[in-house]
Input
Amino acid sequence: MSEQKGTARFSFDMRKYMMVIALIGIWVIFEAISTGTYLTPRNLSNLFRQSVFTAILAIGMLNVIVLGHIDLSVGSLAGLCGGILAIANVWKGLSPSTSILITLAVGLILGMWNGWWVAYRNVPSFIVTMAGLLVFRGVLVGITDGITIGPLSPFFGIIGKDFLSPIVGYALGAIVIVVFLAMQYSERRAKSSHGLQIPSARFETLKSVLFFLLILAFAVVMNAYQGIPNPVVIVLVLFFVFNYVTNKTVFGRRVYAIGGNKMASRLAGINIKRTTLIVFALMGVMAAIAGIFLTSRLDAAAVNAATSAELDAIAACVIGGTSLMGGVGTVSGAVIGAVVMASLDNGMSLLNAPSFYQTIVKGLVLLLAVWFDMSRKKGGND
Amino acid sequence: MNAILDARGITKDFPGVRALDNVSFSLQESQIHALCGENGAGKSTFINILSGFFPSSSYRGEILISGRPQAFSSIPEAEEAGIAVIHQELNLFPELSAAENIFLGHEIAHRGILDWNEMYLQTTEWVTKLKLTDVLPTTQVKELGVGKQQLIEIARVLRLPQMKILILDEPTASLTETETDLLLDILRQLRRDGIACIYISHKIEEVMKIADCVTVLRDGKTVGGGDIREFSKKDIVRMMVGREITEFYPKEHHKDPSTRVLEVTGASVSDYRTGKYLVRNASFHLCKGEILGLFGLVGAGRTELASSIFGAPPGKATGALVVHGKRAWFDSPREALREGIAYVTEDRKTEGIIPTMNVRENASVASLDQFRTFLGIDESREVVEVQSSVQTFRIKTPGLDAGIINLSGGNQQKVLLARSLMTKIHILILDEPTRGIDVGAKHEIYAIMNSLVASGVSIIMVSSELPEVLGMCDRIIVMCRGEITGEFDNSGKDVTQERIMICATGTASEE
Output
């Protein structure tokens, strides 16, 4: 019995492992072709910053897809939120914090708008959010008069472009490690107090050491350039929050249950409508955060900002192993998927490949990733 | 007389079950031959073989059509040979017109251009022949009643010139009495035109009216049959039931007749679209510690009644409930669960298990609130609770983190039971709790039911297995065509299968 348990855990880890291996494979290939300019601290820093925008959207999109829906409006919504931020800050002269709060509120309300139509009016999410895609973009063009608005208060440079100083970077890394160890310790204590089997100390120690090395390597490499980019810190925070929400909370569990079998979830007493509304509302907030980040980075809001970003977000989730049928997917997978996409973009730019190659290669990678996943599952069943 | 269809020694095995055992069946030209049997007697399997749904390689025995051996590997091949099935669930396209439905797949066309004039003309001929008054070839099928839709379906298959044998599977299950009479008239007319017909029905009265000949199946075997004039209704029912109850059921009595935990008054469920009643004006009560059986044949409305009590009806539901002396009517399963009523579905696969989740998550999904802490789910406590259910119900699983789809049907069923019982409940509705699971697991589920009633829980058990109902229930309610047609006190174990079957087939008027 315990042996079978062990193999189950091992294969589960393999699955996560595969995506990391694929990512490292892509890095190694580009490193070889670009003769050593790809895996430099400077380029890695760029690469992570490039993946931030898609990663934020992908984290929100993950919940939507796991629930069994889709959100096509996030590109337009991120663009609209970016525009509202610029209008509030540049035209109305509001303080950065007020502007950000207004933008987040708009994202929340428009996300709830989508969710309300899906949950309480039974319109398919594909249609609701396709309408959102058109409407939000139209509103953006309308309220900005079709012009690019900027520059913003210097504060936004901190969010969008600046770096943590090396000392703060290391300190943050240390805090993360301490929190990780504390959580692991409290989990072990909870398990033993309930008389449950505790994972072997060797396994846990190995896990901790690997985590420590990963954080350390990240901090060292980033500090070797200019420090950990602030936007990357935002993504990491969001990653930890949503990873926790999906894995450890009642809400997260219910999202997976509904995506796995809607009818069974209803019979199990889950409030499907409310959960759907919340998931879309969260997606709206994530789109607003992505819009704030994008406008901050560019120091301006343009009417065509974040066009077709929803497709990148969906692709990131799918590359990260999320099933469009619902019920299956991880936040970490979605974030790695976003990094994979950014790695391809970055690598081909570095090689001066014409931009049309980027879309071709990204499309093929998406196709291959899903095909690989499907064929492996089928093999498992036979 | 010439046998137009002769099936000899048909034997069909499913994994672990012999569905048909050496069944022989002979259909004469221009004959209406009734096929009777309880749920699970093998009728559906048999017609699936005749219609080519099961390819000839999957069973043993031979089928002769007009004396020539046939080996169908698909439904079109059987249709080519002249056999067509009208299923209980109609295969029509509601948005398309009568003519489009009739000619779908066999359109009349010249060089790829559809000849609507010809198709409309032929449709009109069929409409007249089948007495479909006020139906135009262009009428959308969704605007017609179920009875007329059925006739459109009949026209659809009989239009093919080679059609000689029509198989009707429970054709009147959803028809009104007038519609039924019209259908029977048309079948008689078709008989005169030389169409032979296999007529499957639970309703013995209809069978007596229309059939020339009857064959009764039981547990996959032919148990009798012949000219219908040689049999009375009771003979047929007796042949359908036939077997003895073994001492397989470990029934314990914990019923407290003085305490009524649930009272249902005037519960009705009607289809959203057609407005037809699936359950009509059902009233009953449930006592503390009682196992109440809800028996009926397929389509009697048992599931519809049971699920509407739980707030998940398959249509528009009305009625009144009194739960523990409090008036209530649940609009969602959530509300019912809050009042301590749980429901385990008959449709394990589509409404029960969550295939993407593991055993632990499946078991706890209905009771997550009790594990909720400030920091999310208390997983340690969740594991402890699920582990104890797994032990109580003896669920065989490699571990709590094993995917539920890797478990056998019986163990999946036990996980669903565990899901319902992880919260404090006092009424449990079990819909076909032992369908499709092996004998050992069945026995364990009966034992769980016993321990539940011993602890004061009341159970409503929906079942179409008569022996199970008679073996486990304190009281039995019988439904037929959406109405409650009988109630039996089973405490003395003196209720016979015949008496119940007579109510379930709606033949009580005879008594």
